[in-house]
């Protein structure tokens, strides 16, 4: 069975909610899913995964969440070849139009440096996931699974 591992960081609860939607979507597609907050894992979290999913918000003026900084620095040193990845970001385009979901973009680059294959385009969500976002997340999960 396919093992999907999801890690996330959330300050307001928006990204945690997104990670829960992703967990449900991948489970509905028949995958085994492990979902963990980044504070509870290290850069080797994805070692035994088939699919690597990361959900993040963007802090301030385009910065990574503080608790994702070490993970971000060490992830490129992991060998993720043969694995499929996907990234989801939440942000606020009104407050930070120049930096909307830029942390998600940065993680996409890091996964590629680690040798993982992009399974779907990054999904960017305005604050909390609403009905259309939930459908986009389900489509994202399906595309990632099909990329295996």
UniProtKB/TrEMBL annotation:
<keyword id="KW-0288">FMN</keyword>
<dbReference type="InterPro" id="IPR050619">
    <property type="entry name" value="Flavodoxin"/>
</dbReference>
<dbReference type="GO" id="GO:0010181">
    <property type="term" value="F:FMN binding"/>
</dbReference>
<keyword id="KW-0285">Flavoprotein</keyword>
<dbReference type="InterPro" id="IPR010087">
    <property type="entry name" value="Flav_short"/>
</dbReference>
<dbReference type="InterPro" id="IPR008254">
    <property type="entry name" value="Flavodoxin/NO_synth"/>
</dbReference>
<feature type="domain" description="Flavodoxin-like">
    <location>
        <begin position="4"/>
        <end position="145"/>
    </location>
</feature>
<keyword id="KW-0813">Transport</keyword>
<comment type="similarity">
    <text>Belongs to the flavodoxin family.</text>
</comment>
<keyword id="KW-0249">Electron transport</keyword>
<dbReference type="Pfam" id="PF00258">
    <property type="entry name" value="Flavodoxin_1"/>
</dbReference>
<dbReference type="GO" id="GO:0009055">
    <property type="term" value="F:electron transfer activity"/>
</dbReference>
<protein>
    <recommendedName>
        <fullName>Flavodoxin</fullName>
    </recommendedName>
</protein>
<dbReference type="InterPro" id="IPR029039">
    <property type="entry name" value="Flavoprotein-like_sf"/>
</dbReference>
<dbReference type="GO" id="GO:0016651">
    <property type="term" value="F:oxidoreductase activity, acting on NAD(P)H"/>
</dbReference>
<comment type="function">
    <text>Low-potential electron donor to a number of redox enzymes.</text>
</comment>
């Amino acid at each position: 069975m396919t093992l999907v591992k999801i890690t996330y960081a959330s300050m307001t609860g928006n990204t945690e909610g997104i990670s829960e939607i992703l967990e449900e979507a991948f489970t509905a597609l028949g995958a085994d899913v492990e979902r963990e907050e980044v504070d509870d894992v290290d850069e080797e979290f994805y070692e035994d995964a088939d699919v690597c999913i990361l959900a993040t918000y963007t802090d301030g003026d385009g910065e990574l969440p503080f608790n994702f900084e070490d993970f971000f620095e060490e992830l490129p040193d992991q060998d993720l070849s043969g694995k499929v990845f996907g990234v989801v970001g939440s942000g606020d385009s009104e407050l930070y139009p120049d930096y909307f979901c830029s942390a998600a973009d940065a993680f996409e680059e890091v996964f590629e440096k680690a040798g993982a294959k992009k399974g779907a385009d990054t999904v960017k969500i305005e604050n909390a996931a609403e009905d259309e976002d939930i459908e986009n997340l389900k489509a994202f999960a399906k595309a990632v699974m099909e990329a295996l």
